[in-house]
Amino acid sequence: MSSLNAVFDIAKSALMATQKAMNVTSHNISNANTDGYTRQRAELTAKEPVIYGGLYFGTGVDASNIQRVYDSFNTIQLRTSVSLLSRHETAGGHLSGLEAVMNGLDGSSLSTRLDALFNSFEEVATNPSSYGERSALLANANALADSINTIDSGIRLNIANINGTIEGKVDEVNSLALRIAELNGQIAGTELAGIAANDLRDKRDILLEDLANIVDISVTENGNGQADVFLGGSFIVAGTRTSGMSLAADPREPESYNIILNGATINSRISGGSLKGDLEGLAYYQGVHDKVNLLSASLVKEVNQQHAAGFGLDGSSSTDFFAPLSVYTRGSVSNSGGAIVSSAFVDDLSQVTLDDYEIRFAGPGSYTVVNTSTNMVVTGGAYTSGNPITFDGLNVTIQNSPLAPAAGDRFTVSVMENAARDFSVAITDANKVAASSTAAGVPGDNANATALADLRDALTVEGATFGSFFQRVVTDLGTEVNNVKLNARAQKAYSDEIRAARESVSGVSLEEEAINLVKLQRAFEAAAKVMQTADQMLETLLNIR
Amino acid sequence: MRVTQKLSYDTYITNMMRQQDEIYRLHKQLSSQKKVSAPSDDPVNAHNLLTSRTLLSRFEQFDRNIGYGKSHLGMAEQALDSAKDVIIRLQELAVTAASGTSTADTRNNIKTEVDNLFDQLVSIGNTNYDGRYIFSGFESGTPAFDQTGAFQGDANVQSIRVNLSSSVAIGANGGEVFSGANGGIDIMAAVAAFSTALGANDGSGIQSALGSLETSFNQVSNAVSDIGGRVSRLNSAAGDISVYSLELKSTISGIEDVDMAELVTDLKAGEVAMEAALASAGRVFRLNIFDYL
Q: What is the pLDDT of residue B38?
């Protein structure tokens, strides 16, 4: 079979293969700066030889395959580190935002205003009969109230924003899952036909990385080349099928979402991605919000109690300095009975604990009151519609509307819930500031003003003074912000390394491609020369007469 | 390691951003003159900073309290000093009236002056400062003495905070100093008795007035030195406060104020690193295989 015709075929195969390789090289060059592109390589193999006259003769070259230069372990590493990085960066963003809301070190911070309030009480103690000092006290108290209200509204706004972000992310996860499933279908279809679906795989890797950016996933490739994606142990993409992620309100915490996948709540199983960062930020916001509420409620409780004991310049007594604590109640969303809370108020401020409570119904006729902070049963008894339930200084009335409560129904009772939002100064007339401790002591008695000023040193909030409690909150927050920033920086360095490693393996080197270009050009020229030479030889043969 | 163009560009951008971030941070410190603007900038010292500031604001308040207390005590001291002068004059008059040469007529003349001095004592007892009768106790809205010299206030003295643990009474109680409420002599009554004795030309009454005026003088004099003692207590408290405040201010400044020399050096170093990065990038990007093929 060794014939000149065969040489033609061999030269032809070389021309064809070189053109194919050229095609791949130019594809590489054009995608040198495309994100997520994996360089490709034309695999050239020698064609099957033929035996002729007892000898093996080669039959030329074939571009048998176009391969991605790809390290699958590196891709998995990259995905994991992207999840962690976006988690830390997102949480860091939220915590920095919270730090800005708390405004801890600024001259107008809550800490400064607390100092100013107590300094004002002392100022009134110095000059109890003077109107000026009293009116300055009210101004400082109002400034403190503004500060607390601003922090509260800032926290509430940001909590709402984070929840909005979570909603958006869940939509994005679902749409990414759909597109991944669609690509799974296309890749399986292409590769069943024996063709490597290189660019489709690149596209899928980009989508998977986008998904990992939002939530940590694990990916396994099945026999058809389809990527199955699992999230917290539960599948979100299986081949060409997807499972939708959804949100439901948390019955315990109305400001939080439960993230639901395949019928289960997976909040605690999410450990990476910006969604985790959002959940962490949310938890921190709620924790700090609770502390600000606790501080506000304690201020109202302690200052009002002491203030009510004294006498104003006009002889008034039992006056509220700050607006009294309101009692917040909420029926659980899973309540099946028909009872509602018709009234709730503070009976005896001195007995109020600032803990949260739950009134739980064992049936339509009996209830127990549980302190959810200590998990102790406070009281309980037979339920009569409209009869007030009193415990720890609170008075709550539940009545049938018109149906009775059902077994398992719960009502949350809290004086803290809105304490920061509702924090305001009740006194408007400076003469009612109770500086005197006795009715007869007016106007020169400063004992009650001194007692009010001394509250700054009383260990009233979780074993700390008002000032040091707030400072602790701010400092803890600062430490946390710093930690998260350090984590994010370390993770950024690590993922930059992995990205560099990926780029090193799969990135397009223009030098390499330029040399390939020259190499292929020379090969093409040589093959053409073979063809020309064979042609001349054939012509020589044909010219033999 | 295989180095691609994209890798060098990306690395260059990352490093550039890091340098710029560092320079931005230093510039921010330079313009605000503060190296700590949020607790997270220095969590370890943030708590110290906050407690120092709170303490400083309390010391400033103590300083204001002391200032007020000193002017209050100064006012009381001045009033009691004039009361002493009045009593000395009364003693001189008593000595003159008691001498054997005094007649009923001269004693009557002296009585006129004594009555005036009595009124003066009452008005000293009713000294008013900043709208408050300083000798009335807590009844600071009521004059301490009526026209007859009877005390109308109560037995209290106002105290103010001067440091974290102690208070100082910032005045004297009229009932105690003038009316002898705590076992002393009722000066007003003594002067009134002296006046009566003069009017009645009562020699032995005048003699006993000599004794009671002596006791009165001592009583007021004791009150004055008592006030003097408290003023010096306030002064030493103020001295302590200025020392503590200075210390706190230097602590606060040490935590939050920038060290200019260090900052400028760091900034210079950052700029040099930035220039080096720019220069190296320029060189690397000029290398191009297509120039050689």
A: 87
Which residue from B minimizes the CA distance to A484? Answer: B40
> What is the percentage of chain B residues whose pLDDT exceeds 90?
59
Scan residues 57-116 of A and list those with Cβ closer than 8 Å to B: 96, 99-100, 104-105, 111-112, 115-116
Looking at A417, A447, A475, the residue that finishes a domain is A417
Q: Where are the domains of chain B?
A: 5-33+258-292, 66-252
Last residue of a domain, one of A417, A437, A472: A417
Residues of chain B contacting A471 with CB distance shorter than 8 Å: 47, 50-51, 54
Interchain proximity A99–B39, CB inside 8 Å: yes
Which of B50, B66, B161, B241 is the mutation pick for testing A, counting most A CBs within 10 A? Answer: B50
Q: Which domain holds residue A12?
A: 4-69+507-542
State the smallest CA–CA distance between residue A132 and chain B in angstroms.
12
For A271, phi then psi, to 5°, come to -125, 5
Answer yes or no: do A340 and A412 share one domain: yes
User: Chain B residues with CB inside 8 Å of A110's CB?
Assistant: none
- Per CB-CB distance under 8 Å, the chain B contacts of A479 are 39-40, 43
Minimum Cα–Cα distance from A474: chain B residue: B39
Closest to A507 (Cβ–Cβ): which among B7, B37, B167?
A: B7
So what's the pLDDT on residue A2? 58
With a cut of 80, say whether residue A64 has pLDDT above it.
Answer: yes
B92-118 CB burial, b ≥16 within 10 A, e <16: ebbeebbeeebeeeebebbbeebbebb
Task: Give the global pTM.
Answer: 0.88
Segment A510-540, tens digit of pLDDT: 889 999 999 999 999 999 999 999 999 999 9
* ipTM of the complex in this document: 0.85
Q: CA A366 to CA A349: how far, in whole Å? A: 27
- Does A513 map to a domain? yes
Q: Which of B234, B219, B216, B194 is nearest to B63 (CA)?
A: B234
A291 inside domain? no
CATH class of B66-252: mainly alpha
pLDDT in tens, A359-381: 999 988 899 999 998 999 999 98
Q: How many folded domains does chain A comprise?
A: 3
What's the pLDDT tens digit per position in A154-205? 999 999 999 999 999 999 999 999 999 999 999 999 998 888 889 999 999 9
